[in-house]
Amino acid sequence: MLAAHYRTTILFITGLFFTANQLAFAEQSNWLKEGKVAISLSYDDALLSQLENVVPALNERDLKASFYVVPLSVEFKNRLAQWRTIAKQGHELGNHSLFHACQGSRPGREWVLPENDLSTRTVNAMVNEITVANTLLNAVDGETVRTFTPPCFDQQTQNGNYLLAIKSQFIAVKSCDASNFSVLIAPENLTAKQIIVFIISQPKNIKLINILFHGVGGDHLITATAEHNALLDYLVIHRDKYWVDTYRNIRLAVPPRPDEFPNSDVCPG
Ligand SMILES: [Zn+2]
Question: Which H or E element spans position 94?
Fold first, then answer.
């Protein structure tokens, strides 16, 4: 009994000082010195194909990624326990707002519902929505440090750009990394080879490559499952060159400079 209590205490104390994320951070905080390139794999919109085809593939290879979930998604609502497990496995649940408001007037945006048209929202409405999304995600995963991906990368509401108003809530925003440090690709129907060519063709100053997926083997903006898995295999084989981790852990290792986030010059939208 005493031994069990002692063991529990040790685990508790260890847990106080070293969460899984912190251990990963400690292991990888020298990645720049080691000459590695950080790879942030991210998956937007809380899609069924991600639960079925991405999470198992990542876990089999011990790779960590960021999932920018939309709480409005049926797959988020119906599988909350599964998303909680994903967070416990070391993946990041990122903020992607509550309702995924985008500019409905842009080409190809027929799917944007009138009630979710960003051009009808105010800055304050977006701040409220994103604040509640953070609270909800905290209730799911217990995390207080988080990153954000703007839905559709859009930023303009009816009375201004909302990103500056949410700055204090995040350590980094996807698409807002400095362009002399980072690049972003959002594959749609690309092969693993095409994505790998994109990775290896980057100049030496690029130390962070964001690969932003949506559907994998289903849903929308699809990447084929076999191609996605082949990319993961390539990253595992080349662990000496690439540090694959959550966007949160990567940006904890190298926090954005004050002029980097969010700045309209480096944050297209
Ligand atoms: Zn999205």
Answer: strand 92-95
